[in-house]
Specification:
Its cofactor is Mg(2+). This is Ras-related protein Rab-17. It comes from Ursus americanus. The chain is an alpha/beta fold. The protein has one domain: Rossmann fold. Strands 2-3-1-4-5-6 form a six-stranded mixed β-sheet, with helices on both faces. The radius of gyration is 17 Å and the shape is globular. The C terminus is likely disordered. Guanosine-5'-triphosphate binds next to helix 4.
Length: about 280
Protein backbone atom coordinates (compact mmCIF):
# COMPACT_ATOMS: atom_id res chain seq x y z
CA UNK A 1 0.00 0.00 0.00
CA UNK A 2 1.48 3.33 -0.89
CA UNK A 3 0.38 5.88 1.65
CA UNK A 4 2.18 7.46 4.49
CA UNK A 5 4.94 4.97 5.03
CA UNK A 6 3.08 1.70 4.69
CA UNK A 7 4.80 -0.85 2.45
CA UNK A 8 4.19 -4.36 1.32
CA UNK A 9 6.90 -6.77 0.32
CA UNK A 10 9.84 -4.43 0.08
CA UNK A 11 12.20 -6.78 -1.64
CA UNK A 12 14.72 -6.56 1.13
CA UNK A 13 14.82 -10.28 1.82
CA UNK A 14 17.50 -12.33 0.11
CA UNK A 15 15.25 -13.56 -2.66
CA UNK A 16 14.17 -10.09 -3.73
CA UNK A 17 15.94 -8.42 -6.57
CA UNK A 18 17.48 -4.99 -6.36
CA UNK A 19 15.80 -2.16 -8.23
CA UNK A 20 18.07 -2.61 -11.21
CA UNK A 21 16.64 -6.09 -11.51
CA UNK A 22 13.59 -4.50 -13.07
CA UNK A 23 15.59 -3.99 -16.22
CA UNK A 24 15.47 -7.72 -16.67
CA UNK A 25 11.73 -7.46 -17.09
CA UNK A 26 11.87 -5.03 -19.94
CA UNK A 27 12.39 -7.61 -22.61
CA UNK A 28 9.50 -9.60 -21.36
CA UNK A 29 7.24 -6.58 -21.19
CA UNK A 30 8.13 -5.75 -24.76
CA UNK A 31 7.16 -9.24 -25.74
CA UNK A 32 3.97 -8.74 -23.81
CA UNK A 33 3.13 -5.79 -26.01
CA UNK A 34 3.56 -7.82 -29.13
CA UNK A 35 2.05 -10.99 -27.87
CA UNK A 36 -1.07 -9.95 -26.12
CA UNK A 37 -3.82 -7.43 -26.25
CA UNK A 38 -6.87 -8.17 -24.24
CA UNK A 39 -9.45 -5.43 -23.97
CA UNK A 40 -9.44 -4.02 -20.50
CA UNK A 41 -5.73 -4.37 -20.05
CA UNK A 42 -3.68 -1.28 -19.51
CA UNK A 43 -0.81 -1.75 -21.91
CA UNK A 44 2.42 -1.80 -20.03
CA UNK A 45 5.23 -0.14 -21.91
CA UNK A 46 8.74 -1.40 -21.19
CA UNK A 47 9.74 1.74 -19.35
CA UNK A 48 6.68 1.72 -17.13
CA UNK A 49 8.45 -0.59 -14.75
CA UNK A 50 11.26 1.91 -14.40
CA UNK A 51 9.11 4.97 -13.92
CA UNK A 52 6.92 3.29 -11.40
CA UNK A 53 6.93 5.56 -8.36
CA UNK A 54 8.64 4.22 -5.30
CA UNK A 55 6.64 2.96 -2.36
CA UNK A 56 4.86 5.78 -0.51
CA UNK A 57 4.96 8.08 -3.54
CA UNK A 58 1.44 7.80 -4.89
CA UNK A 59 -0.68 10.82 -4.20
CA UNK A 60 -4.38 11.41 -4.56
CA UNK A 61 -3.64 13.38 -7.68
CA UNK A 62 -1.83 10.38 -9.11
CA UNK A 63 -4.86 8.25 -8.43
CA UNK A 64 -7.16 10.65 -10.18
CA UNK A 65 -4.95 10.67 -13.25
CA UNK A 66 -5.12 6.91 -13.31
CA UNK A 67 -8.86 6.95 -13.09
CA UNK A 68 -8.91 6.29 -9.38
CA UNK A 69 -11.17 9.05 -8.13
CA UNK A 70 -11.91 8.72 -4.46
CA UNK A 71 -15.51 8.55 -3.41
CA UNK A 72 -17.16 11.93 -2.78
CA UNK A 73 -16.79 12.92 0.80
CA UNK A 74 -13.82 10.74 1.42
CA UNK A 75 -11.13 12.72 3.12
CA UNK A 76 -7.77 12.66 1.33
CA UNK A 77 -6.27 10.55 4.07
CA UNK A 78 -8.85 7.86 3.44
CA UNK A 79 -7.60 6.73 0.07
CA UNK A 80 -5.32 3.78 -0.38
CA UNK A 81 -3.35 2.23 -3.22
CA UNK A 82 -2.55 -1.45 -2.99
CA UNK A 83 -0.51 -3.65 -5.27
CA UNK A 84 -2.02 -7.07 -5.85
CA UNK A 85 -0.31 -9.88 -7.76
CA UNK A 86 -2.17 -12.74 -9.41
CA UNK A 87 -0.17 -15.97 -9.24
CA UNK A 88 -0.75 -19.53 -10.39
CA UNK A 89 -0.13 -22.06 -13.14
CA UNK A 90 -0.85 -21.38 -16.78
CA UNK A 91 -4.50 -21.47 -17.86
CA UNK A 92 -5.99 -21.54 -14.37
CA UNK A 93 -7.91 -18.36 -15.17
CA UNK A 94 -5.89 -15.52 -13.62
CA UNK A 95 -6.46 -13.14 -16.52
CA UNK A 96 -10.09 -14.17 -16.77
CA UNK A 97 -10.65 -13.41 -13.10
CA UNK A 98 -9.00 -10.01 -13.52
CA UNK A 99 -10.96 -9.22 -16.65
CA UNK A 100 -14.20 -10.28 -15.03
CA UNK A 101 -13.49 -8.19 -11.97
CA UNK A 102 -12.29 -5.08 -13.77
CA UNK A 103 -14.51 -5.13 -16.88
CA UNK A 104 -17.20 -7.65 -16.00
CA UNK A 105 -16.24 -9.50 -19.17
CA UNK A 106 -15.27 -13.05 -20.06
CA UNK A 107 -13.70 -13.94 -23.38
CA UNK A 108 -11.01 -16.05 -24.93
CA UNK A 109 -7.65 -14.64 -23.90
CA UNK A 110 -4.21 -15.56 -25.16
CA UNK A 111 -1.74 -16.83 -22.56
CA UNK A 112 -0.09 -13.95 -20.74
CA UNK A 113 3.44 -13.14 -21.79
CA UNK A 114 5.44 -11.60 -18.97
CA UNK A 115 2.82 -9.69 -17.07
CA UNK A 116 -0.38 -7.72 -17.66
CA UNK A 117 -1.61 -4.80 -15.63
CA UNK A 118 -5.07 -3.70 -14.53
CA UNK A 119 -6.35 -1.06 -12.15
CA UNK A 120 -9.60 -0.98 -10.24
CA UNK A 121 -10.95 1.47 -7.74
CA UNK A 122 -13.00 -0.04 -4.95
CA UNK A 123 -15.44 2.09 -3.02
CA UNK A 124 -15.64 0.88 0.55
CA UNK A 125 -17.98 3.55 1.80
CA UNK A 126 -15.98 6.38 3.32
CA UNK A 127 -12.77 4.79 2.10
CA UNK A 128 -11.57 4.55 -1.47
CA UNK A 129 -9.10 1.88 -2.39
CA UNK A 130 -7.27 1.43 -5.65
CA UNK A 131 -5.97 -1.95 -6.70
CA UNK A 132 -3.02 -2.15 -9.04
CA UNK A 133 -3.41 -5.69 -10.32
CA UNK A 134 -0.35 -7.40 -11.77
CA UNK A 135 -1.44 -10.47 -13.69
CA UNK A 136 1.62 -12.70 -14.03
CA UNK A 137 2.23 -15.31 -16.71
CA UNK A 138 1.60 -18.80 -15.43
CA UNK A 139 3.51 -20.72 -18.07
CA UNK A 140 6.56 -22.46 -16.65
CA UNK A 141 8.99 -20.60 -18.90
CA UNK A 142 8.06 -17.33 -17.15
CA UNK A 143 8.29 -18.68 -13.63
CA UNK A 144 11.66 -17.16 -12.83
CA UNK A 145 10.74 -13.62 -13.85
CA UNK A 146 7.42 -13.64 -11.96
CA UNK A 147 9.35 -13.13 -8.76
CA UNK A 148 10.12 -9.63 -9.94
CA UNK A 149 6.49 -8.73 -9.47
CA UNK A 150 6.48 -9.67 -5.80
CA UNK A 151 8.32 -6.43 -5.04
CA UNK A 152 6.04 -4.05 -3.17
CA UNK A 153 3.07 -6.40 -3.24
CA UNK A 154 0.44 -5.89 -0.55
CA UNK A 155 -1.72 -8.81 -1.60
CA UNK A 156 -1.49 -11.97 -3.66
CA UNK A 157 -4.33 -13.93 -5.20
CA UNK A 158 -3.10 -17.48 -5.64
CA UNK A 159 -5.21 -19.22 -8.26
CA UNK A 160 -5.63 -22.89 -9.10
CA UNK A 161 -8.05 -24.71 -11.38
CA UNK A 162 -10.35 -27.06 -9.46
CA UNK A 163 -10.23 -29.49 -12.41
CA UNK A 164 -6.42 -29.76 -12.27
CA UNK A 165 -4.72 -31.22 -9.23
CA UNK A 166 -1.31 -30.20 -10.58
CA UNK A 167 -2.36 -26.55 -10.47
CA UNK A 168 -3.31 -26.96 -6.81
CA UNK A 169 0.15 -28.32 -6.00
CA UNK A 170 1.69 -25.54 -8.04
CA UNK A 171 -0.24 -22.95 -6.03
CA UNK A 172 1.38 -24.39 -2.93
CA UNK A 173 4.76 -23.94 -4.58
CA UNK A 174 3.92 -20.32 -5.42
CA UNK A 175 3.09 -19.71 -1.79
CA UNK A 176 6.51 -21.00 -0.75
CA UNK A 177 8.15 -18.65 -3.25
CA UNK A 178 6.12 -15.76 -1.91
CA UNK A 179 6.98 -16.62 1.68
CA UNK A 180 10.66 -16.67 0.78
CA UNK A 181 10.52 -13.14 -0.59
CA UNK A 182 7.97 -11.37 1.60
CA UNK A 183 8.23 -10.91 5.34
CA UNK A 184 5.66 -13.01 7.22
CA UNK A 185 2.35 -11.24 7.68
CA UNK A 186 3.15 -8.44 5.23
CA UNK A 187 1.09 -9.73 2.33
CA UNK A 188 -2.58 -10.67 2.35
CA UNK A 189 -2.91 -13.96 0.49
CA UNK A 190 -6.17 -15.26 -0.98
CA UNK A 191 -6.28 -18.81 -2.36
CA UNK A 192 -8.84 -19.19 -5.16
CA UNK A 193 -10.11 -22.40 -6.72
CA UNK A 194 -11.37 -21.23 -10.12
CA UNK A 195 -13.70 -22.86 -12.69
CA UNK A 196 -16.42 -24.09 -10.34
CA UNK A 197 -18.70 -24.22 -13.40
CA UNK A 198 -16.73 -27.37 -14.35
CA UNK A 199 -17.73 -29.18 -11.18
CA UNK A 200 -18.17 -32.54 -12.91
CA UNK A 201 -14.45 -32.54 -13.79
CA UNK A 202 -13.36 -31.53 -10.33
CA UNK A 203 -10.03 -32.96 -9.12
CA UNK A 204 -9.59 -30.74 -6.06
CA UNK A 205 -12.34 -30.89 -3.48
CA UNK A 206 -13.61 -27.83 -1.65
CA UNK A 207 -12.39 -29.43 1.55
CA UNK A 208 -8.84 -29.84 0.23
CA UNK A 209 -8.68 -26.19 -0.73
CA UNK A 210 -10.12 -25.11 2.57
CA UNK A 211 -7.80 -27.28 4.64
CA UNK A 212 -4.72 -26.06 2.85
CA UNK A 213 -5.81 -22.45 3.24
CA UNK A 214 -6.51 -22.95 6.93
CA UNK A 215 -3.17 -24.65 7.48
CA UNK A 216 -1.40 -21.64 6.00
CA UNK A 217 -3.85 -19.07 7.40
CA UNK A 218 -4.90 -17.81 3.98
CA UNK A 219 -8.21 -16.41 2.83
CA UNK A 220 -9.96 -18.92 0.61
CA UNK A 221 -12.78 -18.99 -1.93
CA UNK A 222 -13.87 -20.95 -4.96
CA UNK A 223 -15.04 -18.96 -7.97
CA UNK A 224 -15.98 -19.05 -11.63
CA UNK A 225 -14.74 -16.26 -13.86
CA UNK A 226 -16.92 -17.70 -16.61
CA UNK A 227 -20.17 -17.54 -14.66
CA UNK A 228 -19.11 -14.53 -12.62
CA UNK A 229 -19.51 -16.42 -9.38
CA UNK A 230 -17.67 -15.13 -6.32
CA UNK A 231 -15.27 -13.01 -8.39
CA UNK A 232 -16.07 -9.63 -6.86
CA UNK A 233 -16.23 -11.34 -3.48
CA UNK A 234 -12.65 -12.59 -3.88
CA UNK A 235 -11.25 -9.11 -4.43
CA UNK A 236 -13.58 -7.49 -1.92
CA UNK A 237 -12.45 -9.86 0.79
CA UNK A 238 -8.84 -8.98 0.03
CA UNK A 239 -9.71 -5.28 0.04
CA UNK A 240 -11.42 -5.48 3.40
CA UNK A 241 -8.57 -7.46 4.90
CA UNK A 242 -6.03 -4.92 3.63
CA UNK A 243 -8.12 -2.11 5.05
CA UNK A 244 -8.57 -3.90 8.34
CA UNK A 245 -4.81 -4.34 8.71
CA UNK A 246 -4.21 -0.73 7.74
CA UNK A 247 -6.67 0.49 10.32
CA UNK A 248 -5.18 -1.77 12.92
CA UNK A 249 -1.76 -0.29 12.20
CA UNK A 250 -3.18 3.19 12.52
CA UNK A 251 -5.09 2.34 15.68
CA UNK A 252 -8.45 3.21 14.10
CA UNK A 253 -11.74 1.37 14.74
CA UNK A 254 -11.80 -1.58 12.36
CA UNK A 255 -14.59 -1.72 9.82
CA UNK A 256 -12.97 -4.52 7.87
CA UNK A 257 -14.25 -7.35 10.01
CA UNK A 258 -17.84 -6.51 9.16
CA UNK A 259 -16.89 -6.22 5.51
CA UNK A 260 -15.34 -9.62 5.49
CA UNK A 261 -18.45 -11.14 6.93
CA UNK A 262 -20.64 -9.33 4.44
CA UNK A 263 -18.55 -10.33 1.47
CA UNK A 264 -18.78 -13.97 2.35
CA UNK A 265 -15.09 -14.36 3.09
CA UNK A 266 -14.08 -17.07 5.51
CA UNK A 267 -14.43 -16.05 9.11
CA UNK A 268 -11.22 -17.77 10.10
CA UNK A 269 -7.77 -16.32 10.48
CA UNK A 270 -6.68 -14.16 7.62
CA UNK A 271 -2.96 -13.90 8.06
CA UNK A 272 -0.58 -14.87 5.37
CA UNK A 273 2.98 -15.67 4.63
CA UNK A 274 2.79 -17.65 7.86
CA UNK A 275 5.58 -20.14 8.14
N1 LIG B 1 -14.92 -23.10 -17.76
C1 LIG B 1 -14.17 -22.08 -17.34
N2 LIG B 1 -13.12 -21.69 -18.09
C2 LIG B 1 -12.38 -20.65 -17.63
C3 LIG B 1 -12.68 -19.97 -16.43
N3 LIG B 1 -11.75 -19.01 -16.26
C4 LIG B 1 -10.92 -19.10 -17.30
N4 LIG B 1 -11.29 -20.08 -18.15
C5 LIG B 1 -10.65 -20.48 -19.39
O1 LIG B 1 -9.37 -21.02 -19.08
C6 LIG B 1 -8.44 -20.67 -20.08
C7 LIG B 1 -7.26 -19.94 -19.48
O2 LIG B 1 -7.72 -18.71 -18.93
P1 LIG B 1 -6.74 -17.50 -18.63
O3 LIG B 1 -7.51 -16.48 -17.91
O4 LIG B 1 -6.00 -17.08 -19.85
O5 LIG B 1 -5.70 -18.23 -17.67
P2 LIG B 1 -4.34 -17.66 -17.05
O6 LIG B 1 -4.20 -18.28 -15.71
O7 LIG B 1 -4.32 -16.18 -17.10
O8 LIG B 1 -3.27 -18.28 -18.05
P3 LIG B 1 -1.78 -17.74 -18.34
O9 LIG B 1 -1.92 -16.43 -18.99
O10 LIG B 1 -1.18 -18.77 -19.24
O11 LIG B 1 -1.06 -17.67 -17.04
C8 LIG B 1 -9.19 -19.82 -21.10
O12 LIG B 1 -9.62 -20.67 -22.15
C9 LIG B 1 -10.38 -19.30 -20.32
O13 LIG B 1 -11.50 -19.04 -21.15
C10 LIG B 1 -13.81 -20.40 -15.68
O14 LIG B 1 -14.16 -19.87 -14.61
N5 LIG B 1 -14.51 -21.46 -16.18
Amino acid sequence: MRRRGAEGCRGTSPGCLPLTGLCAVQGCLSVFQRGRSAPGLNSLRPFDARIQPPANAVSLQGMAQAGGVPSPGAAPDQSYVFKLVLLGSGSVGKSSLALRYVKNDFKSILPTVGCAFFTKVVDLGAVSLKFEIWDTAGQEKYHSICHLYFRGANAAVLVYDITRKDSFFKAQQWLKDLERECPPGEVVVMLVGNKTDLGEQREVTLQEGKEFAESKRLLFMEASAKLNQQVTEVFSAVAWELLRREERKEGRPQRGDAGLALSGAPAGPARCCAR
